[in-house]
Amino acid sequence: MNFRLRSPEVSTQHPPLLVLLHGKGANEDDLFALARHVDPRFLVISLRAPHEMAPGYYRWYERFDSPHGSIFDEEEIEASRQWLVQHIADLVTSSGAAPQQVHILGFSQGGAMALALALTEPRMVQSVVSIAGRLLAACTAQAAPATAMQHLNLLLQHGSQDEVVACSESVTACKYFSKKGTAADLKEYATGHTISPAMLKDALDFLSGQLDGEIPRTDA
Asked: Which has the least CB within 10 A, 6, 26, 151, 177?
């Protein structure tokens, strides 16, 4: 497992853990640049996706275009989902992080995988920030009972001008989780497939709020 780590700046026996999941074609260095802005109480770990595309470039799953729309490699999705379940559990144990305070921020494919964990393994996750993500149909059949998702807090962020992953994907995901009784909020931004300064500020405020016992709400 390859990852980057930022230790918490506030000393505590069992720190909250923030896991960063990059998008397709990136690596663990990509989102780790955000770590310096993250609430100092967090232990921050940026993971590298398990499927190599080329040296230095990785993905969580393959996606193909077809005349009928996108096709997703379900075997790679499931392999990555299981990989995350195992490695996040191992990181919690090895780092001494609080197992009930695991938070995930993911971008694009990383956002989709973050939502996949919230959907299938909600016991492992306290909150999720999904930026330009989507709900993966391959994971919905493995969804945990709605009663197991009641503690989750989700923030879905998406650029209204996103040319890679349509903003409607986050709309669909937000509606899905909301119907399960999960606290899921959607916020749209006038930007493309990126993490804008406004997105980052809202995401960081949301994550800090989780540690403060708040549930920041946004207008869906």
From this structure: 151
